[in-house]
């Protein structure tokens, strides 16, 4: 009563799909990383929607699946508000609508989120056919702990906002996972050293493709490497969680004194507490005393 149940592609009479929205994962690099179930859905869905219709058409061509006379519609962040009513109308008319992101699993940094939410709110069944994901693939290759991880997507473009975002994640007790662009990678790694400390990290690049790379090291080492060797391709960055015991391994007063040379009391407290994973309040109190020239 009042609980929505998805049909998990239960067939209609005649072998077709039940009405609703079908989300399929597409390869992140290697075209063969597509599931049999996704191929079946591509063959039988009534309406096809994709973040990039050219990518989906190419994928279907590779696997010998014809679009035929079925609609193949673009659905992305720039036209979502205009296209959603059309796709919801197709579902309401009893058709099975398939949505594919450009690469990887829908809903992960992907414009399909609003479509899936609208479909649920309209009472339509929503089914996911899982598959490739850059986040999970990077975690399997990066060599950092995977028992707990926090996916933060893309960081802001501007350096100040990026540092603020990194600082907010300093206390997260899990491996941090980010998407990053090649042109910002070095700056992002150096900002991470500033705000998180020189933690262990991994840069996973061109996953499942010919030049796949998973390079592991300290954040500062990785930043230096990519300064000399500018990266190409799509990138996932993993950063190890901070060591909560690190407060015993450094001179807090010295670090605060150094920070106060170029920062205000508030900024120095924020910076040191984030960098070394210690509570902010005692750091702020120490900064206040040092700034006032006393050490009580």
From TrEMBL:
Catalytic activity: cytidine(1402) in 16S rRNA + S-adenosyl-L-methionine = 2'-O-methylcytidine(1402) in 16S rRNA + S-adenosyl-L-homocysteine + H(+)
Assigned keywords, A-Z: Cytoplasm, Methyltransferase, rRNA processing, S-adenosyl-L-methionine, Transferase
Any one of the GO BP annotations: methylation
Gene3D superfamilies per record: Cobalt-precorrin-4 Transmethylase, Domain 1, Methyltransferase, Cobalt-precorrin-4 Transmethylase, Domain 2
Tree of life domain: Bacteria
Ranges for domain RsmI HTH: 251-290
Domain Tetrapyrrole methylase, first and last residues per copy: 21-223
Keyword set includes Methyltransferase: yes
CDD domains for the chain: RsmI
Presence of keyword Methyltransferase: yes
Gene Ontology molecular functions: methyltransferase activity
Signal peptide range in chain numbering: none
Pfam families in the cross-refs: RsmI_C (PF23016), TP_methylase (PF00590)
Main location: cytoplasm
E.C. number: 2.1.1.198
Localization terms from the record: Cytoplasm
HAMAP family in the cross-refs: 16SrRNA_methyltr_I (MF_01877)
Protein family (similarity comment): Belongs to the methyltransferase superfamily. RsmI family.
NCBIfam families hit by this protein: 16S rRNA (cytidine(1402)-2'-O)-methyltransferase (TIGR00096)
Biological role stated in the UniProt entry: Catalyzes the 2'-O-methylation of the ribose of cytidine 1402 (C1402) in 16S rRNA.
Name under which the protein is recorded: Ribosomal RNA small subunit methyltransferase I
Species name: Ponticoccus alexandrii
